[in-house]
Amino acid sequence: MQTREANNLFSRRICDRLAHELVRGKYSLHKPLPTHRQWAKEFGVSTFTVCNALEELKTAGIIESAEGSRTFLRQIPSEQVLMQRLEAARILRGKERAPPRPLTRSSATNSAAWVCLFLDPRFELYGNFINALMEHLQAACVLPVNATWQLGRGENQIQHLINRWRAEPPQAVVIQGLVSDRDEAVLRVCQEQIRVVAVFRLRQFDVTGWHTVNPDMYSAFRMASQRLMAAGHTRIGVVVKPRLVVPDWRHTHRKATMWHTEQVLGVGHVLREAGHRHGLTIHYNESLGVSTEADIVRLVRWLNRPDRPTAVVADDFRVPGIMRAAERLHLRVPENLAVIGVGDSPVALNGGFPRISLGYERIAREVVDLALAAEDQMQHIARHVVVPPSFVSETTSVQESTLQVA
What we know:
By secondary structure, the chain is of the alpha/beta class. It has three domains: 78 residues, Winged helix-like DNA-binding domain superfamily/Winged helix DNA-binding domain (Arc Repressor Mutant, subunit A, Orthogonal Bundle), CATH 1.10.10; 151 residues, 3-Layer(aba) Sandwich (Rossmann fold), CATH 3.40.50; 141 residues, 3-Layer(aba) Sandwich (Rossmann fold). It contains 14 helices and 15 strands. It has a seven-stranded mixed sheet with strand order 4-3-5-6-7-13-15, sandwiched between helices. A six-stranded mixed sheet has the order 9-8-10-11-12-14, with helices on both faces. A two-stranded antiparallel sheet has the order 1-2. β5, α8 and β6 form a beta-alpha-beta unit. α2 packs across α3. The longest helix has 20 residues. The radius of gyration is 22 Å and the shape is globular. The protein starts with a helix and ends with a strand.
């Protein structure tokens, strides 16, 4: 019988082999990949081992599941980017950790310190935040324990963690994003005994007693629009994902479960204040990023209209797709179409366009500070931290801004 260490080693080897085959073009984008059973037969291992390998590729954002158990190739990054994503994915999944830094506290204190994390596994969006969060926890000699939550499976899927929380309470529970049933389960179990730090949520969904750390999305899109207005653009487009309406949502603001509203208002208010009431145009992009041919075609139609925008503001991971659409119309960026990205996703590392940073590294630092602060410092008051945006040109670095704490 194979040990857990042996299974993890086999999974890692198979993951690395599959990753290189995917990147080198053995399989096509958006077409079904072989089944778990087929790969298990090819590699001579169990389907459980193959499943673990595929989970790492999913966490790295390379493949995705659809139509039951079938998997599809989501994107083909460069080999260097691929290895960076896999390394971060393994840290996130708790299968590989960097060597601990020298302890700054007593061993007795640090050995029991741990933080439970409910993170968004989409590395292509939050990879830089996840990396920074892990580094800050590691520097504080705190063990991060990642938890996963699947909609519809209920509280039983984290029962093992709940048992541990009761026997050995964590320093804090960190939850990312807005997931209704997960949040209710955490609220029910933690109550006031365990500190909860929520990150990347909208303020109307604050839970009493929870600490929060958020980017200022409204100000980021407002800042981008002000820069475009200063350059003479009076017709600005926004590329966003359609607002999600969940009929059985437990909160009252069912249409405000995403950053969509903050993004549109940030641009719209700047134009309206300058007297350009009809200067805003919105393009809704269904998929994550602008990655499919259908996405590009829809963008081409939008940018080919007589009243097309002369500038576009969008999440930074959507910018490469916007630039490809502009290229098909022979629109030069920024001469014929100005583009500003907003965010700190791994896409931003490649540069090539100006952007507004949301301060992911600083958000991670604030999350860890709130999670590990002593009780006498917190004074039983929920802290709400908003990290302001800052402009980053194609060559300059992020400038520090004043932090807002409510």
